[in-house]
Amino acid sequence: MAQRKLFGTDGIRGRANIYPMTPEVATALGRAVTHYFQTHGNGKRKKPLIIVGKDTRLSCYMLEQAFAAGVCSQGGSVILTGPLPTPGVAFVTKSMRADAGVMISASHNSFDDNGIKIFDANGHKLPDEVELELEELVLTPELMTVRVGHELGNAKRLKEVFGRYIVHVKSAIKGDVDLDGMRIVLDCANGAGYKVAPMMFDELGAEVMLLGVQPNGENINLNCGSLHPEKAADKVEKYRADLGICLDGDGDRVTIIDKNGEVIDGDVLIGLFAKMLLDQGSLKKGDTVVGTVMSNLGLEVYLKSLGLKFHRTKVGDRYIMEYMRESGAILGGEPSGHIIFKEHSTTGDGSLAALKMVEAIKTYGDELTKILEEIKLYPQVTKSAIVNKKVPFDTIEPVQAMLKKVDEQLGDKGRVLVRYSGTEPLARVMVEGERFDLVNSLCDELVSVVTAELGQ
């Protein structure tokens, strides 16, 4: 496959107003997306309908308008939803029978970054080959017909789409699950879920204590949300809450805090949900749960003890979803808290996963702690090395020699993985094994070698 110039593991992402996250690129991408669905759509509309959502970053105003201008200039119609979680944009795209959906967000990154994710008519993220075709159109605009006169498109803003998404997510939990009397701490990261998530849990009857619901354009993910659950954990303990829920900036992932104020690892959540779906009959022995190359070996061991299979994909929930669609799997996710329940969503959904956690609390009661303790994760250390170039690791002899050393010391009860970040100038180094001290030292050694070879 050709080298990608704009798209990374999850859309296009970078520093806002610096290439490629500029208004000019956003406009060109708006044109490209519209042109693509004009030529590859179902033919029902002369003017493709594109849903455009966003999070709360200051730069979203700039990029939202620029992308919409590109759609209109190419003869498409735009519906602007305002701040809405990524899974909400995916759902609304399918619900409104639009041709495509676009989310403007840099997810868990700081406010001065931004990004653009694109969904097809069914709410699925676009495959690599389609992103490559869009890149070609962006970089070679003469491939697209210039629209004039009555061929130009239009845009409008709709706020009532919130309700559609809230009803959809609430319907994902069992009808007999009651949140009355539950005390929940909810941190919305000053991000895309700051309106809809509180409404969701409030409507279900929970007593909700809120954090991260006062976005100002610059405080998204700032010492709050899924990457910084400390404040929420303190409140869980202080108010003796039943649960803490921390979303990230675009609401597609979650960090869960138990009633003791302890963070539950994302892989442990996946193991718990697999058991619950198995006990409910939605999963059967021999079925597959999907993770990534970063998923903990302990999760795989636990799933096998339940009689389930485990499959690893590349990092990124879109690759998980692609395999789920191919294989028929209904549960997948990443350690970071991207969890996909395919029967209810086409992408990771933090609020939905949180409601499933409520369902697990109600299902297992006092037994829940015992179940969580059964999912024993291996010590895993992931560190980053800043790189100035991204050369295939198998061509760098010192890195290969160090990888061989790590493999020999870990034996068959450990794993090592080196990969490049799809959105930042970083190499991710992950080492996993039975002993933390060994895993940590080997990870440090490997990071040093990678830095020495690629950080110059």
Write the layout of secondary structure elements.
Layout: E1 12-15, H1 23-40, E2 49-54, H2 59-73, E3 77-83, H3 86-95, E4 100-104, E5 113-119, H4 128-139, E6 154-157, H5 161-170, E7 183-187, H6 196-203, E8 207-211, H7 230-238, E9 243-247, E10 254-257, E11 263-264, H8 266-280, E12 288-292, H9 297-305, E13 309-313, H10 317-327, E14 331-333, E15 339-341, H11 350-364, H12 368-374, E16 380-386, H13 397-410, E17 415-420, E18 426-432, H14 436-454
Parallel strand pairs: 2-3, 2-4, 3-6, 7-8, 7-9, 12-13
Antiparallel strand pairs: 1-5, 4-5, 9-10, 10-11, 14-15, 16-18, 17-18
CATH superfamily placement of the largest domain: Alpha-D-Glucose-1,6-Bisphosphate, subunit A, domain 3
Mean pLDDT: 94
Number of beta-strand segments: 18
Question: What percent of the residues sit in helical stretches (DSSP H or I)?
Answer: 25-40%
Overall geometry: globular
Main sheet: which strands, in order across?
A: 1-5-4-2-3-6
Estimated structural class? alpha/beta
Rg, nearest Å: 22 Å
The largest pleated sheet is described as: 6 strands, mixed
Our count of domains comes out at: 4
Span between termini = 28 Å
- Tell me which CATH architecture of the largest domain applies here: 3-Layer(aba) Sandwich
| CATH class annotation of the largest domain | Alpha Beta
Q: Which consecutive residue ranges, at least 5 long each, have pLDDT under 50?
A: none
Helix count equals 14
Which fold does the CATH topology of the largest domain refer to?
Alpha-D-Glucose-1,6-Bisphosphate, Chain A, domain 3
Strand content: 15-25%
